[in-house]
Structure formats: C-alpha cells, structure tokens
UniProtKB/TrEMBL annotation:
Name of this protein: Subclass B3 metallo-beta-lactamase
Coiled coil: 260-287
Source taxonomy: Bacteria, Pseudomonadati, Bacteroidota, Cytophagia, Cytophagales
Organism of derivation: Dyadobacter subterraneus
Keyword flag Amino-acid biosynthesis: no
Residues annotated as transmembrane: none
Length: 288
C-alpha cells in the first residue's frame, strides 16, 4: 500500500510540473561533459555510449536494450548516433535506468523516453526528484527545474532485480550523493569467460553545508557512512561508474583501440577511490 501511495504521489508531482521552464545549470567548467567520445564495446553485450566524461551504458539483449544514464539534455542526439554507430537502434530501448537524480545524468532522459516508450525505473528515494525535474533535490533551492521531468514507471529498492532478455541486473541502494543514488551489479559473457560487472555510483560529497545543516536530508551523514561501508564489500571483476574520470576512461580506452575488457578490471583503483572518499567523509563528518 505504501509503495502504491508513493508512486501516486510521484506521478502527481510529474503531472504538476510539465509546463514549468527548465534551467540547466552552467557546464562551462566541464567541457568534457558534452565532448563527444566514440562508442565502444566494453565487454560482451555491454557498451559505452556516453560523452568523454558523462558515462552512459547500453546493455543489448534479444528482447530489447537497457540504457543507463543519458548525460546532459544536449546529449540526446549524440547518444542516438553512438548507438547507431554500434549497429543498434535507439528505438529498441525498453528500460531506462539512472545512477543518480542529477541533471548531468538525466538531462536527456525525458526526450529519450518520449521517442522510445521505454520504462523508467528509479530508486524509490530519487523518484520524486526524477518526476519533478530536480525541484525537490535536497541540495538545490527548489525554485526551478534543472532537467525535464521523467515519468516513473517502477520504483526500485535495494537488491531488486531488473530483468530483460536473459539479463538480470541487481540494484544496490547507495544513498548520500543523492537520496536514491544507486549502483548496479550484473553478469556478462564473451567468448572466453563470464564477468561480474559493477556500475558504481561513487559517493562524492556534493553539499557545501555541514551535515547537521542539511535540514532537507537529515540522514545524510548516516547514508554516506552506510554506502561507503557497503561498497567496500562488493565483489566484481569489472567496474565502471557515473563519470568517466572516476574509472579512468580516457586512460583505459583510446578511441579505435581493440576490444579489451581487462583494462577495466582495476579493483585497486576502485579501492583507492573508496578510501579517498572515506577521508573526505571523515573530514566532513568531523564537523558534527
């Protein structure tokens, strides 16, 4: 009953904000967010279709495809072109997912959902932000939408499964960066072996306020602590994340280079980043 009421609230919020203007924050300090990057096969049926830094992933199945993240609003045509370059069709997208409810990962989601009719599945704690275009984001002032609202078709909770065409993704609730930040774990195969893949939403701290002063997110410190601990215990072969810079995309894959899943089997890098984030958290939490 609670899940049904929450979804009704989210759908109502979506319907109320359709006519409001979108004001996307400036990205002048991040030209790599919109810089084109040639799409490529990461491993098996998993492909990279994003920009030089805003990571977007395509999972191809016989029953349709799954698209994770879309980058900025201006990236819609780039993603479509990247998917076409790989030999696939944007129209075959059946499921849309995101790792976090921020404009730099959801900017083109509404447009892509409109042309594909794909189902938008969202971590329950980010669903309201997705549906209202960022108005309810805990770290914004709530005066303007920062991306086009997206109708939510399914609420996801920790350990829920997303299934399509023989693929099974497990969502991991990793809150802090946003209330519903999440990661995904799944298996892919190529001709030589099976790989456990993690698409991680790294828990970077976005708020400039002291944790006790974030009144719109009273559990923020506790959520960050939970996520950092949970991410330490994940088992995987390959890891990727929401931003290319986080998993060293530009160093690990040069445009035109050969298929090389081993380049992304870099657990040491992952562990170092988690430790750096823990130090950032400890410094921030020391203000409590």
């Amino acid at each position: 009953m609670k899940k049904c009421l929450l979804l009704l609230l989210i759908l109502h919020s979506y319907s109320l904000v359709q006519a409001q203007k979108v004001v996307e924050p400036s990205t002048k300090t991040h030209p790599e967010w919109s810089r084109p990057f040639p799409p490529f096969q990461i491993v098996g049926n998993l492909y990279y279709v994003g920009t030089a830094d805003l990571a977007c992933f395509l999972i191809v199945t016989p029953k349709g495809n799954i698209l994770i993240n879309t980058g900025l609003a201006s990236s819609a045509q780039l993603i479509k072109a990247n998917i076409k370059t790989l030999g696939f069709k944007l129209s075959d997208t059946k499921i849309l997912l995101t790792t976090q409810a921020h404009f730099d990962h959801l900017g083109a989601m509404a447009a892509i959902k409109k042309v594909t009719g794909a189902k938008m599945m969202v971590d329950y704690a980010d669903a309201l932000v997705v549906a209202d275009g960022g108005l309810s984001d805990y770290d914004l002032d709530g005066k303007v939408r920062v991306f086009e609202p997206v109708k939510v078709d399914r609420l996801l909770h920790n350990s829920d499964s997303i299934k399509l065409g023989g693929m099974k993704l497990t969502i991991l609730h990793h809150p802090g960066h946003t209330k519903g930040s999440c990661s995904y774990l799944f298996d892919v195969n190529d001709k030589t072996r099976k790989y456990r893949v993690l698409i991680a939403n790294m828990p970077t701290i976005v708020t400039e306020k002291k944790f006790p002063d974030v009144h719109t997110y009273p559990d923020i410190a506790k959520d960050y602590s939970y996520t950092l601990d949970a991410m330490r215990h994940l088992k995987f072969d390959i890891w990727l994340s929401s931003h290319g810079i986080q998993f060293d995309l530009l160093a690990k894959h040069r445009p035109g280079s050969a298929y090389n899943p081993a380049a992304f089997m870099d657990k040491k890098n992952y562990e170092e980043q988690i430790e750096d984030l823990q130090k950032e958290y400890d410094q921030k939490a020391g203000q409590l």
